[in-house]
Specification:
Elements: H1 14-25, H2 44-49, E1 55-58, E2 73-76, H3 85-91, E3 99-104, H4 112-121, E4 125-127, H5 147-150, E5 158-162, H6 167-176, E6 180-184, E7 189-191, H7 193-213, E8 218-224, H8 232-244, E9 248-254, H9 259-263, E10 270-273, H10 278-282, E11 291-292, H11 294-300
Parallel strand pairs: 1-2, 3-4, 3-5, 5-6, 8-9, 8-10, 10-11
Antiparallel strand pairs: 6-7
Helix pairs in contact: 6-7, 7-11
């Protein structure tokens, strides 16, 4: 198959999008209708079986440290078209201090300069950083990696997160231990106290899960099969720690995590997730048995103090 450029158009209907690509490449197009949790979640091996020549991944930026030599991939980031200026101006009075770290998701990366200029006009000093080799853009954070913020956390008084949802700003609070203001361009809402309340609630849940895991004897070490979520070296370290305390443990490999799947695995008292950090936190209430992160296991076995709690990240 020959291809040089793929022009991104503002096409509304899915049918039009597929037909556009099909006509440009003069070949067949397969729409993958499975769930996709990000650039970490591309089923390369299944695509090889389908004899696919090119993958077009829409909606996320590339994760640089994930290498795939089998099939070329074009990443088309889905930029938000919404005007962010109103909610940024609204967030000014919520910010703590003068030096403000700016972070956002892929959808608003193109607005970084606009955000910076608005803060500067209000006599603030915005600071933006590039994360490690899992992050492709300056100021970008993803659900499992906050390195763009970690690099500047000692240089800022607080952070401004621009985007929707609670998980990213909560992860930012837990990883940076700095005040965080979340500005949502879609709802025009600004959150600060609500995030702190939610943070405290999540920390109580995590403390409860750690407490339950202390009485466990049989542990399931969860290994994610998605290429961008695999941390087998970490799973080995978890096993070594469990072995040192004479705890029975088993490796369990899963592609899509679900309470139903894990409930069918009996004789396990506690699961330890080495896959996506969101699994243990987002779906906590759905699981009947505790699921903890490797860092939380260290706390349970007194290898780390609760005061040294850290948000699990794929770094």
């Amino acid at each position: 198959m020959q291809y040089k450029y793929l022009k991104v158009l503002k096409i509304i209907h899915l049918k039009s999008q597929l037909n556009y690509i099909k006509n440009k490449i003069n070949g067949n197009v397969i729409l993958i209708a499975d769930t996709c949790f990000g650039s970490c979640d591309i089923p390369y091996y299944e695509f090889i079986d389908l004899k696919i020549d090119l993958i077009i991944h829409i909606g996320h930026t590339r994760i640089p440290n994930i290498q795939n030599k089998s099939i070329p991939i074009i990443y088309l980031n889905a930029y938000s078209m919404i005007d962010i200026r109103r909610v940024i101006k609204k967030s000014i009075t919520y910010l703590t201090g003068e030096k403000i770290g700016i972070v956002t998701t892929a959808q608003h990366i193109k607005d970084i300069d606009k955000i910076k200029k608005i803060l500067e006009k209000n006599n603030l000093k915005p600071i933006i950083s590039k994360g490690n080799n899992r992050i492709s853009e300056h100021g970008q954070i993803i659900g499992c990696n906050y390195s763009s913020a970690s690099k500047i956390k000692d240089k800022v008084d607080s952070f401004l997160f621009v985007g929707s949802g609670n998980f990213h700003p909560i992860g930012l609070i837990l990883s940076s231990k700095k005040p965080v203001v979340a500005a949502d361009p879609y709802s025009n809402e600004v959150k600060k106290e609500e995030l702190e309340i939610l943070r405290d609630k999540i920390l109580k849940q995590r403390y409860g899960a750690i407490t339950l895991s202390k009485n466990a004897n049989n542990f399931g070490i969860l290994i994610g099969l998605k290429k961008g979520q695999q941390r087998f070296d970490l799973a080995i370290k978890v096993k070594e720690l469990l072995d040192s305390f004479n705890k029975n443990n088993f490796f369990i490999a899963i592609n899509n995590f679900s309470p139903i799947y894990l409930e069918s695995i009996r004789d396990i008292d506690c699961f330890i997730s080495t896959s996506c950090p969101r699994i243990a936190i987002d779906d906590y209430l759905q699981y009947k048995k505790p699921i903890i992160t490797p860092i939380e296991l260290e706390i349970a076995f007194n290898e780390r103090k609760w005061d040294d709690y850290e948000f699990d990240q794929i770094l």
